[in-house]
Amino acid sequence: MLSSSSCNFRFCNTISSTSFISTTTTNTYRRSEFTHLSFLNYLNSKIRSRVAAKPTVLLKTLEILEWDKLCDLVSSFATTPLGRNATKEQLWSLDQTYEESLRLLTETRAAVDILNYHPKLLDFNRIHVLSVTTGINHVRTDSSVDGQEAIAIANLLRFAKSLQININYAIRGSNDLRLRVKPLADLILDLKTNESLVRSILQVVNENGSIKDSASQKLEKARRRVTSLNNDLFLLMNTLIANEASTRTLEASKKYGRWCIRSEAGQLTRFKGLLVSSGVGDGNIIEPVCAVSLNDELQEEEAAVAEAEAEVLLDITEKMKPDLDGIVKLLYSIVKLDVVNARASYSLSVNGTCPELLLLDGKSNLLRSEGSKNDSSNFVYSNKKQRMLHISQVYHPLLVQSHKQDLEEARRDAVKSTSMGLKLYFQFRRKKMQTQNILKQEVDPEILQEKVTQLEKAHPTPVDFVVDINTRVVLISGPNMGGKTVCLKTLGLAAIMAKAGLYILCSEPAKIPWFDSVLADIGDQQSLYHSLSTFSGHLKQISDIQAKCTSQSLVLLDEIGAGTNPLEGAALGMSILESCSVSGALLTVATTHHGELKTLKYCNEAFENASMEYDEVYLKPTYKILWGVPGRSKAMNIAERLGMLEIIVSNARKLYGAASAEIDEVIFDLEKSRQEVEEYVHKVSHYLRMCKDVGEKLMLARRRINESCSNLNKTKMQQTSEIALRVPGARIFFIKLCYKILAF
Predict the structure, then answer these.
(1) 3-state helix, strand, coil in the chain (%, to 5)
(2) What is the pLDDT of residue 32?
């Protein structure tokens, strides 16, 4: 984010580029419209300059990961135009330090708590920030603000005061909430609002931006005179029309601020007049001679009204000047709050998790760990191994959004098919299909409902990432169409989102390192313009990645060593990955089909294998990652599933060889053993939870028994005391009995 001084500089730049507007036109609406447009263009140019300043390899990575789509999605949750542009600018910067990323996450978490307390507390829709911006520009250039800008500034100040009152009320009743929202509460409570300026504006300006009659005696007198003249002229026009033989084609109207009578072309009238204009469509517009003096007087009084209004607005402008810097700072703070609100609203909409952000050095030593306040004891095997990266059930955010949109559209179509009537619905569908160049066909409502059901079941599949702190390279293998590429993109987006202050779409808890940059080589890097083949394009991107990455970077490599001779590709891929493990990025995640690369784990402890799970029964991928086990390509099974001739598949299996098949069987046995171990671990965890629950219940029962015994003893002592007081000589016996009970 920008500092307050840089915010002032931005406003000044906007003023210098747009101040000519106020001197070239007197139309305040057009002036404001152009200034708003210039300011938004300025912000958009700032975003474009940030993008252009980034290294090419980083821009390619962001393009591959579709970061721009996620930025647009998050910014849509901002409630003001400036907030949306500022959100994009902040998300595109990606130059945050570890401390800045922690601050962004802290702000997001505080905003989430505020929104959970009251969903509309950070809704800035009521503030017309663009009118506030143009008002600030006009005050700076000694131009007069208009009524819309004046009331917008008053509403800004009123909203800030209301926000302070609401936040103060919220944190006063809950000490826990006060601590959680402190980062934003301090910013909100420090906002400066000038209530006397608000009163001054509201005394002379209506809520719709018009100037009140009571703003000045001069204005009130001039408006009263204008109203009287308008009434007199209207009556005069109607009298002249009534005296005509044919009144149907005559009409009283105003032209250029003067009262006239409209008639058909060629129509003769009894009154004398001046021809103001004539045309084929409009007919003749005539100003009666008897109305000329009144029209002149009307225009003089309207000029007097405009002059009086200008004096009122100029007086308001002068009153704003002493507080101008405070208004600028307040507007900046509101925009900043809207940016935080956008991050928090998006994080809530996807039910995200605040990640625990780790700071690791080049040797994977943990320097700092802050962010999520979740209990880290829930990590699997956390008592045995320390994790660098642990994200459970993480989703690709764009896939989730796409699925959500498809499901909403399917539900709308299904509702329309049942509520509009079949005939009307089919007409609606045919028209929609024609605009989308789709074949015309009538869709049965049952089919639409079935589509909704299928989409509800076909939710995107989450994946798990579990990487030990000593691991530098993770190699993911497995079948084609198994989801390896989506896993790489999911991890890349999760890392960037955490750095930018966004929640991750995963289950709690989430632990992820802070990466200074995410660099990826994913997809087809072929370039005809640069005369690069697919293989050459990959090598060029990998070379750029190695030149750019540091010991705190995340590198994602898809199908490393592919696109050339398998043996050479495997050797090159092995060399690249070994280089990454020694002096490369903090973490490198690569996918491959080369079997030779899977053996690196057994000669270098910096490597870890993983594979995409494949359902052997239904012969289809499950899109889940199996950690610690290398995968098989399943090319034969996929070819068979896609309908290739059986003789071709059978011959391919023979050519593949028995030795390779045996290796696959060993891998299959490893996968099976891993699944069995996971089942046992799950059962043990279940029994441990049951034992813990039983232990807690036993402790509770014991506590209740002790309380019951204590209450019973007190009751007996009270009853005995009452009896002893009534029976003579029993007092000494009662005291001895009490000593025995207490001793027991």
Answers:
(1) 60, 15, 25
(2) 41
**Domain match, 472 and 549 both:** yes
Could you tell me the end-to-end alpha-carbon distance of the chain, in angstroms, rounded to an integer? 70
Provide φ and ψ at 122, rounded to 5°: -105, 30
Same domain, yes or no, for 288 and 143?
no
Report the greatest alpha carbon distance in the chain. Answer: 133
Dihedral of the alpha carbons of 314, 319, 320, 322, in degrees to the nearest 10: 130
Nearest to 471 by CA among 609, 672, 304, 268: 609
Are residue 149 and residue 222 in the same domain, yes or no? no
Closest CA to 603 of 568, 576, 628, 578: 578
The per-residue pLDDT for 307 is 94
Q: Distance between CA atoms of 215 and 309, rounded to whole angstroms?
A: 8
pLDDT of residue 586: 92
| Amino acid code (one letter) for 729 | G
Query: The domain spanning residue 519 has which CATH number?
Result: 3.40.50.300
User: Is there a contact between 570 and 596 (Cβ–Cβ < 8 Å)?
Assistant: yes
Task: Tell me how far apart the alpha carbons of residues 633 and 616 are, in angstroms, rounded to a whole number.
Answer: 13
Angstrom CA distances, 503 to 80, 138, 145, 178, 184, stand at 22, 40, 41, 21, 17
Q: What is the DSSP string of 234-300?
A: HHHHHHHHHTSS--TT-EEEEETTEEEEEE-TT---SS-EEEEEEETTTEEEEEEGGGHHHHHHHHH
- What tokens appear for 544 in the block? 């750029």
Both 173 and 40 in one domain: the answer is yes
Contacts of residue 686, defined as CB under 8 A and 6 or more positions apart, other chains included, come to none
Taking alpha carbons only, the member of 653, 741, 675, 4 closest to residue 325 is 4
CATH code at position 333 = 1.10.1420.10
What backbone torsions phi and psi does residue 705 show, to the nearest 5 degrees? -65, -45
Q: How far is CA 689 from CA 376, 684, 692, 694, in A?
A: 17, 9, 5, 9
Chunked into runs of 10 residues, the chain (744 residues) has average pLDDT values of 37 34 33 47 60 76 93 95 93 92 95 92 90 92 93 95 92 85 91 92 94 93 94 91 77 88 77 80 83 93 94 94 93 94 95 92 69 43 64 93 88 72 56 49 67 84 89 86 87 96 90 94 57 70 89 91 80 88 89 81 85 74 80 69 78 67 61 72 82 85 83 75 63 62 58
Residue count of the chain: 744
Q: What is the DSSP string of 15-48?
A: HHHHTHHHHH---HHHHHHHHHHHHHHHHHHHHH
Tokens 């001039």 found at = 222
Q: Clarify whether residues 42 and 108 are in a common domain.
A: yes
